[in-house]
Amino acid sequence: MDPLLNLLLFIVLVGIVLVTGFIRIEFRTITVKGKLRNAETSPWDLNEFLNLKPSRPKSNEYYRFNEESVRSHAHRFVGRFDSAILHWEEAPILDLIVENKFPVSYLPEKAKKEDFFQAGLYALALSESGVSCSDTRLVVVYCLQDVAKRCLFGNAPKKCSDCGEGRFFSRQFDQREITKYLKRIDEVWYKKRRPKTSPTETKCRPCPYSRNGKCNYSAV
Fold it and tell me: For every one of its 220 residues, what pLDDT tens digit does the chain have, with 9 covering 90 and above?
C-alpha cells in the first residue's frame, strides 16, 4: 500500500480517537454541570435524607446538600464536604461530591491530586452509611478569591455551573485508590513510619515536615 495513504489513514484514525475522547469529556462535563444546575436544595439534612423511605423522595430527583459533616468509623476520620448531589432509587445514591477551592492569583491547569483525594474521602465516608457510590463522580472547582467575592456579594450571584470564570475538573470515584492512599497515610500517622521523600516545589510548600520550602528528609 502507498506509504502516503498509510500516513493519511493513520492521521484520520488518530483524529477520530481524539475527537471521540473530547466528546466524552465534554459529555461528562455537561452531565456534571447539568446535575449541579438542576439539583434542588434538599429540604432534609443529610442524616434525615439517608433514613427516608424510598417512596418519599421523587425518583431521579436530584438534591443538593451543602456543608454537611460525614464520618468514617472504619478509617477514623471526620470531614465536612462543600456540596454533594444525591438521589434515591432503591437506596440513596451519591452522584457528585463537589470540592471548591479558591486560589489567590491563578487557576491551575489541572486538578491537584490532593483535592480529588479530599473529595474521595467524603465519598468513602458516605459509602459506609449505605450510600451507593458506584457511579459517583468527584468534582473539583477552582475559582479565584476575588471572583468568588464579587459573586458572593454581588446583586445577582451566579451559580458555579453557569460561570465561565472558574475551572471544573471531574473524575470517577475509585474506592480502591482512596483506601490505598489512606493506608499509606495511616502508616505515618498511626504506625509512626517516617515519610518517604518526594521533594517538589508544590509538595514542599504545604508539607508539615518542610522548613522554608525544603524537605527535612531529603538528605536522609
Answer: 566 666 666 676 666 655 454 444 444 444 788 888 888 899 999 999 988 776 666 666 889 999 999 999 988 899 999 999 999 888 899 999 999 999 888 888 889 999 999 999 999 999 999 999 999 999 999 998 888 888 777 655 556 766 778 888 999 999 999 999 888 888 877 777 776 767 676 677 667 776 666 666 664 4
CA 157 – CA 163 distance, rounded (Å): 10
Work out the burial of residue 55: count CB atoms within 10 Å of its CB; fewer than 13 is exposed, 13-18 middle, 19 or more buried.
exposed
CA distance 86 to 63: 5
Read off φ and ψ for residue 168, nearest 5 degrees: -105, 135
CA distances from 44 to 36, 40, 116, 127, 189 (A): 18, 11, 27, 19, 36
Using left for φ > 0, alpha for ψ between -120 and 50, and beta otherwise, residue 212 falls in left
Residue 9 neighbours by CB distance under 10 Å: 11
H or E stretch covering 4: helix 3-38
pTM: 0.74
Q: How far apart are CA 158 and CA 61, in angstroms?
A: 22
Strand partners, 100: 141
**Residue 21: all three cell numbers together:** 475522547
Count of helices and strands (H, E) across the chain? 6, 8
